[in-house]
Structures are given as C-alpha cells and as structure tokens.
Amino acid sequence: MNTQTPSLLKRLLFISLSLMLVLLIAMFLGLSMGSTQTGIHAFLQNLTGTGPSDSMLNTIIWQIRFPRILLATMVGAALSLGGLVFQALLRNPLAEPYILGISGGSAIGAIIGILMGFSRFPGVSFSAFAGSIATLLLILVMSSGQTILKKDALLLSGVMVNAFCAAIIMFLISLTHDSRLHNIIFWLMGDLSMVDIGHVGILAAILFPCFILIFWFSNSMNLLLMGKEMAQTMGVNIRAVTVILLVTTSFMVSATVSYCGLVGFIGLVVPHLLRLLFGPDHRVLVPACVLGGGAYLVFCDVLARVLPKQGEMPAGVITAMIGAPLFIYLLKRTRR
Amino acid sequence: MAIDVKNLNYYYGDFPALKNLTFSVTKGDFFIIIGPNGSGKTTLMKIIAGILKLQKGRLEILDCPIESYARKTLAQTIAFVPQLTQLDFPFSVKEVVLMGRSPYLGMLGLEQEKDLTIAKQALTFTDVEHLAHRKLDQLSGGEQQRVFIAKAICQEPEIMLLDEPTSSLDLAHQTRLMDLMEKLKNEKGITVVMVSHDVNLAAMYGDRLLLLNKGQIVHLGRPEDVLTYQTLEQTYGCTLLVDKSPLGKIPRVTPVPQKYMSVDIKDR
After folding, report:
1. What is the domain-level CATH number for residue B32?
2. pLDDT reported for residue B167
3. I need a labelling partner for A187 at 20 to 30 A (CA). Which of A11, A292, B92, B173 fits?
C-alpha cells in the first residue's frame, strides 16, 4: 500500500473547494442571466458599481434572482443528499429522496392547499409539509418493529404509498378545471420562483443542521454498505443509525418540497455522478452532494429561465431533461 | 475461556433453533462447528457475534457476560467474517481493510498513521498487499475472502468468527484460507471459531469440533472422537465411509452414493 494516496482530509478539502468553485460559477451565471436581457457585462458593472445606476436592474438581480439562486442551491443540495442517504440506507442504486412516499404525500397536501385557495407561502407550503410528514409517520408505523431493517419492506411500503397517492392526485386533478390546474401542474414539476429572502432564511435554518447530522453519520453509512450484519459486528448501532438517517432525511426533503414542489431526478442523478467521480466514501460524498447538487440545480434553473422565448419553465423540467439521458449514459458506461 | 456458553436457548417465534447448549471454547483454539443444514450452526455463530440478541441462557466472552460489552468494545474483541457478500458500491481493498479500524476511531472514522500501518500489516499477513488499490468487486472470491479477513485482523480481535468461509472457494483456495486461519491462530494467538460444511477440512484443521443437530449438541471433542461413522450417519442420515486419511491420524469422511452401496467395504 503506498502512502502517497492523499489522506481523507486533504481529499475532502480539495473536492469541497473545487465544487465550491463550480457552485460559485453557477451562482454567477444565475445572477447575470435571465429572461430580461441583462448579460454578464451589465451584471459585473452592477456588482462593481461602475455602470449607470439602474434601480430596475438592481431589483431584478438582488430581490428576484438572488433569493431564487439561494433557494436552488439549498434545494439541490438537500435533494442530492437525500438521494445519497436513501441509496445507502436501502442499498438500492435506484433510490431517490421521494422514494418513501414523500412526493405523493406532499403533493396531496399541496394540491388540497391550492384547491382551497391558500396563498403559496405559508399556506400551500405548510399543507405540503404536513402531507409529507404524515406519510413519513405512516411509513414508520407500517415498518415498526423488525421490518425497518429489512430494506425491501421499507422500499415496497414507500412505493405502495406513492402509488396510492398518485391515484388520489389524479382524482383531484380530474376535478379541477380552472386556473388552479396550472398552479398544480407547476407545483408537481418543481418551481423555484416566488420566494423572498426571508423564506430562504427559514429553509436554511432547517436544512443546515440536517446536513451536519448526516455528515456525522457518513462513516456509519460506509459501514452499512458492507452489509447490516458486518456493520453490526463493527460497532454500529444499525437500528439507531437507520431511524435517525431516515427521519432526518425525510424531514429535510419535506422542507424543500414544501418550498418548491417536486423537483425531479436531481436526487437520483447527482449522487451517482459524484460517486463515479469521487468513489463510494460517504465522508467525501456528503459534502460533495451538498455543493455539487446545489450547483447542478442552480445551473438547471438558469437554463429554465433562459431557454424559453417567453416566460420560463419549471426547473424540474430541465433537471429531468438533462438528468435522464446523463443517467442512462452513465449506467451504460459503468456496466461495461 | 474465550467463549463460555451455558444453557443457551434460541427461538425463532415458537420454533426452537437452539436447545440448551452448554460448552466452552479455550483461548487459542481452532474451533469448528459442523452439522447438517438447519442444525443451528449459523444461529449460534450470530449469537456469539452479537448479531442476534441472547434470549435465554448465559454467554460469556473472555469471562464477561456479552451484555456487559459496549458495541465498540465487542467489535474490538470479536471480528466476524460473513459468507461472501456482494458489496453494492465499489470500495477499494484499502478502504475496506481500513474500515476494520472503525471500532477504535470516532464517528467519522478518521484514521491516523498507526491505523494505516496496522492495515498494511494485515494486508501483508493475508497476502493481498498487491491488491490494495484494486476495487473489491474486481477480485475473485478467494481474494475477496482474504480481504475481509484482513479487515477482521485490523479490528485486532481476540476471537475471530467465520461463517462458512470456504463454501464458494476452489480446492486450492480452501486450503490456502484454512492455512491462513491456522497461521492467525499460531502467530497472533487468536481464537478461531468457524462454521463449516466441510467435515474433511474440519478434521484436518480443527483442534476441537462441535457437532450440532436440530439445535442440540451431538458431540464435542477432538476430530477423531467426533467424526465416527456411527455418529455421523445418525446425524446426517446418510451412508458414509469413515477411514483414516493417509496424511496422518485424522479421520476422512466419504459420503457413499446410491450406486456404490453394494460395494463391500471391510473396514468402515
């Protein structure tokens, strides 16, 4: 064994700094580009204060784009991390953050909120959050006792809850005919618009402790991948680790979903992409998912704002449009 | 005593898997548990490993009840090598072996220079040093098994438990692995407890054998005392030929197929 391989801390630092740079570039693009033709030059002038003072541009950049970019960063980070945790916990490479029924539950909550005419924040956010927490509790009750450690039981419970919820969602949609239908569809596709900086602050306060807690258990996730029995004989309290990670992750994902609906695919693709780049060590992958996932969603959101000639499309459309082909490509490459 | 078991019972629901077992394993022994399918071998091993919770009876590890061990302390005392497992994500050999140090490290498992040295020695001991940077899923079964043993050695245990480690290995790798376990016992003084289906390997390597059937002890003793054809035929319910191996005074067991039943064997 040669001692030239960089130690974990050095690798962690290097990877984190590189991804931080990628994230900053994505944020820079996000601030300078949008449906109004401002461009990078105008943004730089605004940033340095050299250009003509333009209060309109100021408002667009700092009160519309900036909170939106922060939201995209946090949502991308949380969803990627959620996918990573569930892939390790369920030992299933196809797991994603919504797999335990969070998407279905929160969607029902949000749709009911929209149909009852609640405002986007806090009304619909709250009803979506309530819906996903309700499904989490349902899953925990269903899998109480020994079954929580049987990965397929947990997985199947989640799939079933999602299937059941999908039926209810379709039912509710079929009853809706007016403009609320548009709101529902946008919510289901993931929508990062309509936030202000205060709301973003609340989300940050919820997510940050979750990130730290998950990082704290990153080595336990490594050991869990060796098989539950082996992990247990290496000093891991597998039941406690499973429950803590499950609840923390679901809570984190529920919080993001309540802000911006169902942004798809990012939680499936980003962990796989980063695992291919940096290997399977979760002590590296957890921070990498937070930074890389954030950058990915900011980038997708820029495309979602710039690509359409008129208006904008939900970021969830872009994440899947880029994510699905990328995922298939990676899958084919790794199978070889 | 390395392991002391008294009146141990274990139930899966209502089904009794182990009935009133009492035995002990001396420190530094090569102890092999044999018996037919469903005799409770693996259940017994999992209880000793701390995977299954003790239900009824007493179990002492190094003269302390197993309940008195903290998780990490138990992991520093007993290392467990399961049957060949499929790893979902491709860790490198070095990463897997270093994981063996986690019972000694904090939550994040940040390894020090000392841990790297121990890992390196373990890789050398099991003769997989040249594979250190390979991915585990690129290795053959025999190589993987030696990596997991290196990982177990990294735990610096007093007792090593192995669940049918030779079952998917070819002849050369079987003896190579058993030789390695003997070396571990002789050079590091580790007590080796193994579940095996291969009575002939058990006969050649085991200091003492424990023969289980339907959750009960049939016989416990030296190979030549346990592996008699009366005992084995009764336990396994098939016709067997037991003679002496040309290698020495160890018994050799040959199952007799139906078509050779009529062959006259003088000295069973």
Report:
1. 3.40.50.300
2. 85
3. A292
* The total number of structural domains that make up chain B: 2
Q: What's the pLDDT score for residue A76?
A: 95
Question: Residues of chain A whose C-beta is under 8 A from some C-beta in B?
Answer: 1-3, 5, 8-9, 91, 93, 216-220, 222-223, 225-227, 229-230, 232-237, 275, 279-281, 283
Are residues B146 and B182 both part of a single domain?
no
Is residue B94 domain-shared with residue B122, that is, in the same domain? Answer: yes
A235 to chain B, closest Cα gap in Å: 4
The ipTM, to two decimals, is 0.89
Question: Which residue has tokens 């499929």?
Answer: B86
CA distance to partner chain A, nearest, from residue B220 (Å):
27
**Residues B82, A8: C-beta atoms closer than 8 Å:** no
Residue B75 lies in a domain: no
Nearest residue of B to residue A223, measured between CA atoms:
B99
Q: Do A229 and B111 touch (CB under 8 A)?
A: no
Quick one: which H or E segment has residue B59? strand B56-61
Q: How many domains does chain A have?
A: 1
pLDDT band at residue A265 under the 50/70/90 scheme = confident
Which structural domain, as residue segments, surrounds residue B231? 1-62+158-238
A223: closest CA of chain B, how far (Å): 7
Question: The domain spanning residue A268 has which CATH number?
Answer: 1.10.3470.10
Q: Which residue did the predictor score with more confidence, A4 or A44?
A: A44
Residues B78, B159 contacting (CB under 8 angstroms): yes
Residue B253 maps to a domain? no
How many residues would you count in chain A? Answer: 336
Roughly what angle, to the nearest 10 degrees, separates helices A238-260 and A66-89?
Answer: 150
Task: Say yes or no: B154 contacts chain A, CB-CB below 8 A.
Answer: no
Is B112 near chain A, with CB under 8 Å?
Answer: no
Phi, psi of A138 (to 5 degrees): -60, -45
| Least confident stretch, A21-30, A117-126, A225-234, B27-36 | A117-126
Average pLDDT rounded to a whole number, residues B228-257: 90
> Same domain, yes or no, for B172 and B146?
no
Q: Is B139 helix (H, G, I), strand (E, B) or coil?
A: coil
